[in-house]
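Q: Convert this sequence to structure tokens.
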Amino acid sequence: MKIVTLALIAAGLLLAQDKKAEKTEPRTSAAAVAASSPTLPAGAKEVEPGLYRYTDPQGKTWLYRNTPFGLAKWEDKPVTSAPVVQPVVPVLTTDLGDSVQFERQTPFGPQKWTKKKTALTEEEKNYLKKEDPKRPERPQPPEKNAEKPSALSQPVSSGSSRLKAACRQDCPPHKNLQGTAC
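A:
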């Protein structure tokens, strides 16, 4: 019984529908859409595959390109933007004798590299030429093979007096004091 009632209500709603709304609403066809999209003019010259240039009677130059979605059209305007100047990042150089150490700041921290003078690129040679002579020199790291002064060559300091008092042995700081009592 419920099914029959629902079927009758649905049939009544379908019959009560306004037929004027159907007639006033025009449907767009594929032909109407195609007519509104740009078409390739007869005098267009192919610049490169898929790209065409056309000058209209008003003197404007238009470019046309075939895309998967149809023909695209835009005005050909000369580029008037200023050239992009990239900021110059200073490179610090340190001469290490037969090689050169370079250092520059990057967004991820300082970048350091060392190259032999015989293997420098043109860019690295320019960095070396542009080095500012007013910049203070970096201190050279101490050499690993440098001789350390021996304890015998240094005189016994007053700081070793407590050793002298307690030692009474023939140890390296006191070898040169053999005739004296520690």
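Confidence is low (pLDDT under 50) at residues 134-138.
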